[in-house]
Amino acid sequence: MALTAGEVPVATALEELIRFDAPLQLFERTATSDVEVAGALVRSGEVVACLMGSANRDAAVFGDDPRTGADAFDVSRDPNPHVGFGLGRHFCLGAPLARVELEITVRRLLERFPGVTPAAAPPRRPTWVLRGLESLDVHLA
Ligand code: HEM
Question: Is the Cβ–Cβ distance between 34 and 14 less than 8 Å?
């Protein structure tokens, strides 16, 4: 199934893009009291890094099938319980806006340039908390 062929809703594909290559790879939490997390004691004042990019590739959630599992890019994945926008009390306040902006941008791009393809492997920014591309050159024909 392909996004460019209109076989997959843009909104569905966007969720997989955010899962597969999480723009925010990790965030930190500081314990305000002693707390046990998954059998490990975190003492008050200690900092814990939560690796959302890793959680988004959790085979226990997404499976390990090479074609559809955690490490596969499945553009039609639905449902897609990723944590690319975080989870719980601090779930991304801007998620609805980000989703609308992305959907409109990608839909308009595909409407105008249905044959759009990458021109080359895009260079990545030299960062790993906020992940992304330095640039993305495309052929529009
Ligand atoms: C694809 C785009 C975006 C991604 C992947 C993203 C991801 C995230 C994640 C993972 C968190 C949770 C951080 C944590 O728990 O410490 C977060 C929080 C937040 N995001 Fe986003 N975000 C995006 C776009 C936006 C936009 C467009 C806005 C505002 C217009 C926004 C505003 C916020 C705010 C205010 C919080 C803090 C919420 C809180 O702590 O209660 N985000 N975001």
Answer: no
